[in-house]
Design a protein that fits this description.
The structure holds 3 protein chains of 3 kinds.
Chain A: E1 4-10, H1 16-25, E2 30-34, E3 37-43, E4 45-49, H2 50-57, E5 70-74, E6 76-79, E7 83-87
Antiparallel strand pairs in A: 1-3, 1-5, 2-3, 4-7, 6-7
Chain B: H1 18-24, H2 32-37, H3 82-106, H4 114-123, H5 127-144, H6 148-175, H7 181-192, H8 194-207, H9 212-240, H10 245-250, H11 252-275, H12 277-306, H13 310-327
Helix pairs in contact in B: 3-6, 5-6, 5-8, 5-9, 7-8, 8-12, 9-11, 9-12, 9-13, 11-12, 12-13
Chain C: H1 11-19, H2 31-34, H3 59-82, H4 95-122, H5 126-156, H6 163-169, H7 174-184, H8 188-217, H9 221-251, H10 255-284, H11 292-311, H12 322-328, H13 332-343, H14 356-365, H15 370-386, E1 410-411, E2 414-418, E3 421-425, E4 428-432, H16 435-443, H17 445-448, H18 454-459, H19 468-474, H20 490-504
Helix pairs in contact in C: 3-5, 3-9, 4-5, 4-6, 4-7, 4-8, 5-9, 8-9, 8-10, 8-11, 10-13, 10-16
Classes of the chains: A alpha+beta, B mainly alpha, C mainly alpha.
């Protein structure tokens, strides 16, 4: 059985760089667009890296700013200053 | 998309919800606070009794001896619903955050005398546990109270107390260079130092009060009626004489919050006492008992900080509490 | 002045220092007196320090992010009202989903706020307490933003004027109400299992994600904004739900069977309640994003599958009757809509027969069941209505003793036979709609016999009188406006008038 972890974000200007960063850092991630939102699935593990978002955004970005765009998640959460990670135990 | 529909046919059919219009006395546009508060809580036809306390209903007026014809006769004078609340608190916190940044940048804390820094570790840092106690009591009151109006005020207050416990903790981290050592020491004082045992005993005794309105009054009127002026006014002034302006800046959030609390708490007592002489008598008894306890509990700390001035200060604080009670129609 | 380099604390360490050390072991009062409710459910906790904080928001960050969300949300609500946003929705039939939301779901948000306040005081550990308190505050946010968003609809449409009264009294609203009353009257650990785990983690996506996306698709900017804005808190709530389960399971293996039973119970109770959402999605959205069946596959079968695989190592199995619920996903929206079509004269929202294009969509989405069982029935009802015989069912239905839904659901392997089960308790017979509900009843009959069953109450004369009209007035329904078919309703008349003016321009 597949072990998909997933993050759903609103589609707006705040989330655009996050979506871009996720796609960059998780090559296996698949983004599905729905009205108003995007669901990004990835097998086993998915990470949002502060560094990548900051590069795209050109400013400091606090990982907790994810709070503003997140719609839903699936997976165990690990959050630190530098990243936000979703995973299932393998 | 522009719609050219004659304004006459897009006139609203009603201005607000029926239960809001009923309380307003007519169908007219209502304030956000009113729509977000009035009659929000279920009142009847509860399906099951709590398995954790089968004597009571899920929402139950009998959990306090205070009787109100209408539990929505209390309205928050600040008109705070969630949105207005978070926006107001964020504004206060932004100012506080700037103070922390400024102190960090300028190493202003180094200007505070070592002696006063030590004192602050002994009187202010253990207070984070008192704030946590105030969080628990307000949370308990929010749970047991009747009607959304009081319940939300208590919930906001509970979260505010957690916030203030965290501000005090951060002050500790500024003092101990982020090792957390000062917080560990403060907890030891809270648990064991003679000076703090009266406060801890009072706090723990308040946790088990059965009547939520008594708890609400004991915490937010009596205990806080002592703590906020004592710590953030009298102790603050004392600190100024020891180069304590850095710490004084950090007290700003609590000073503003204390003023805010007085506004809604005094108003609540006024409305409740005006309802009936029985209510006023209950409030009077509770205020007397818990003010006595709070004065007694905090006196050793006042003496530790203020020395010989302490007794006079505590007398002033008591007079002020009695004055506030009298203004709310409660004779002590 | 030489600024010394300050030590910077990491997120976890900082959170721990600012929060976890705040509590203490009381000694002037016994811990069991201070926390009287957290040990009667049979859950063993040896070390509250083993609690992993599901999210690490200090209050300063909470106020910052939440106030920002609120500013954005109220800007949308204001502009929606100023620009008469209700004129931009796809069709007025859509508003009936909003009516069901305001009367059925929003009051649950308030119940959640109070429930989390309760457990936010009652747990012995500071970690779970803070997480629950924050959720309590979030839930208050949800009910208040919903009341504010829908206030504009109330100005123009029927059925939204008296939500608190209706939630407490109206027959179908006892389905969501009893669900939450059940959770709130349970102990703190069961409450978190029911609401944080079964509802928030496993099932809430089915309510908020596809439905809100549907709201966006149907031009309802106010709802999609509060929906997504609320959902941004939900990610925290879901994490709390998963953490509490792992915490209980890790603390003591004796907790495992208790947690399993709660999961079974609340999964079933949750899916029953969501049958209302199923019909909202399949029938009440004029433009559809995905079918209930598709949503079920994504959010339960796929996401839930991965989740329960993860919990397997603790000895946890997927919820009992998950297979039945998955079979039901083919049927439940159609059966629920049919029940409400029967009784819409006693409901504060309208129903209707979907138009041909919509029937075709349902046929396409439900190739194995819709044409076989449900389409012919809807086409028959349509014919009857066009012949001036719109069908309303004038007898009162029997309700399931547990989920309180009228007993109109069928056996899933035999979709033309009504399913019902019988239990006996103290010489009385009690009826339930399914094995799932029967199991729940049989485990705690003393709880479920207390249920305030609307139909029983009507027959006992406790609901305003003996005539249907008396009861509906007692519900505070405006007869001929709030109830009956959408065709011929004041909502429809007004909407058509607006459309007529629009086309003239």
């Amino acid at each position: 059985m597949s072990r998909i972890v997933s993050i759903t974000l609103q589609t707006n200007d705040d989330s655009r760089p996050i979506i871009e960063a996720i796609t960059k850092d998780n090559p296996d991630a698949v983004a599905k667009y729905y009205p108003g939102m995007v669901k990004i699935d990835c097998e086993g593990r998915l990470v949002v890296k502060q560094e990548t978002v900051e590069e795209i955004l050109g400013r400091e970005w606090d990982v907790q700013e994810l709070q503003l765009s997140i719609v839903s998640i699936a997976g165990n959460v690990d959050e630190e200053d530098e990243y936000f990670e979703l995973s299932w135990n393998l | 998309m522009s719609l050219e529909i004659k304004t006459s046919i897009i006139e609203p059919r009603r201005q607000t919800y029926s239960h809001i219009a009923k309380r307003l006395g007519e169908d007219k546009p209502a304030a956000r606070y009113q729509e977000a508060t009035w009659d929000l809580q279920p009142t009847t036809n509860f399906h099951y009794r709590p398995t954790w306390d089968p004597q009571r209903e899920i929402y139950d007026k009998s959990l306090t001896a205070i009787k109100m014809e209408d539990w929505y006769s209390f309205n928050d004078p600040r008109q705070l619903y969630y949105g207005a609340y978070t926006i107001a608190r964020h504004k206060m916190m932004e100012a506080e955050e700037n103070h922390f940044k400024f102190i960090d940048k300028t190493s202003m804390m180094d200007l505070v005398s070592g002696e006063w820094q030590q004192k602050v570790k002994e009187f202010l840092l253990p207070l984070r546990h008192f704030e946590w106690g105030a969080n628990m009591n307000n949370c308990d009151c929010s749970d047991k109270s009747y009607g959304a109006a009081i319940s939300q005020v208590a919930l906001f207050a509970a979260m505010d107390r957690l916030g203030m416990a965290q501000i005090i903790s951060r002050t500790g981290l500024v003092l101990d260079d982020s090792t957390g050592k000062s917080l560990d020491e403060a907890k030891l004082l809270w648990m064991e130092a003679d000076m703090w045992q009266g406060v801890r005993r009072m706090t723990e005794d308040s946790f088990v009060l059965k009547d939520w309105f008594e708890m609400f009054t004991a915490q937010n009127f009596c205990m806080d009626g002592v703590v906020f002026p004592l710590f953030y006014d009298y102790f603050d002034k004392e600190g100024q004489e020891h180069g304590g302006s850095a710490l004084s800046m950090l007290n700003e959030f609590m000073q503003d919050w204390g003023k805010d609390e007085r506004r809604w708490m005094d108003h609540l007592l006024k409305v409740t006492a005006a309802e009936s002489p029985e209510n006023a008598a209950l409030l009077s008894g509770w205020i007397k008992e818990w003010t006595d306890r709070a004065i007694e509990a905090f006196t050793p700390i006042a003496r530790h900080v203020l020395g010989s001035k302490a007794d006079e200060v505590m007398a002033e604080i008591r007079t002020e509490i009695n004055k506030r009670a009298a203004k709310s129609g409660i004779e002590i | 002045m030489a600024a010394k380099r300050k030590k910077k604390l990491g997120l976890k360490q900082r959170y721990s220092m600012l929060t976890r050390g705040l509590d203490w072991e009381t000694s002037y009062q016994k811990m069991d007196d201070v926390f009287p409710y957290d040990n009667y459910e049979g859950i063993y906790i040896h070390d509250w320090e083993g609690w992993e904080d599901p999210f690490r928001l200090t209050m300063d960050a909470y106020w910052k992010f939440q106030s920002e969300k609120e500013k954005k949300l109220y800007a949308v609500i204001d502009s929606f009202a100023q620009n008469n946003g209700h004129l931009g929705i796809t069709d007025a039939r859509y508003v009936n989903a909003i009516k069901l939301f305001l009367t059925g779901v929003s009051p649950l948000e308030y119940q959640a706020a109070r429930g989390f306040t309760h457990v936010g005081r009652q747990f012995r550990g500071v970690g779970p307490r803070v997480a629950c308190q924050m959720q309590a505050l979030d839930e208050l946010r949800h009910v208040q933003t919903q009341v504010h968003s829908m206030s504009h609809y109330n100005k123009y449409f029927d059925g939204l004027h008296s939500a608190p009264h209706m939630h407490d009294n109206v027959w179908y609203l006892s389905v969501p109400k009893s669900f939450f009353d059940d959770a709130r009257t349970a102990g703190p650990f069961e409450f978190l299992t029911s609401i944080s785990f079964a509802f928030e983690y496993v099932l809430t996506n089915l309510l908020f994600v596809p439905f809100m996306s549907g709201a966006a698709f149907n031009g309802d900017m106010a709802t999609v904004t509060f929906g997504f804005s609320a959902q941004s808190d939900e990610a925290r709530h879901m994490t709390l739900g998963l953490e509490v389960i792992k915490f209980m399971l890790e603390q003591d293996e004796r907790n495992v069977p208790i947690v399993q039973r709660w999961m079974d119970k609340w999964f079933w109770r949750g899916t029953r309640m969501l049958s209302l959402v199923a019909m909202m999605m399949d029938y009440m959205l004029p433009k559809r994003v995905m079918s209930w069946r598709e949503a079920w596959d994504i959010y339960f079968t796929e996401a839930g599958g991965a989740l329960f695989k993860d919990l397997e190592r603790y000895g946890i199995k997927p919820p009992k009757y998950a297979d039945i619920a998955t079979k039901e996903a083919e049927h439940i929206s159609h059966q629920a809509w049919h029940i409400f079509y029967n009784y819409t004269h006693a409901a504060a929202f309208h129903t209707w027969v979907p138009d041909k294009e919509e029937l075709d969509w349902l046929s396409e989405k439900y190739p194995d069941t819709f044409d076989k069982y449900y389409r012919p029935r809807l086409e028959y009802l349509d014919k009857e209505e066009k012949a001036g015989r719109r069908f309303y069912n004038d007898t009162l239905p029997m309700l399931c003793q547990v989920c309180q839904i009228p007993m109109g659901f069928t056996d899933m392997d035999d979709p033309t036979t009504i399913s019902f089960k019988v239990s006996e308790y103290k010489d009385d017979k009690y009826h339930t709609c399914s094995n799932g509900c029967k199991d729940i009843f049989d485990h705690e009959p003393m709880k479920y016999v207390q249920a305030w069953l609307p139909v029983h109450q009507i027959y006992q004369g406790n609901c305003g009188g003996s005539e249907m009209e008396d009861v509906l007035k007692w519900y505070k329904m405006n007869l001929g406006a709030d109830n009956l078919d959408y065709n011929g309703s004041p909502d429809q008349k007004l909407w058509d008038e607006w459309q007529a003016h629009r086309t003239k321009v």
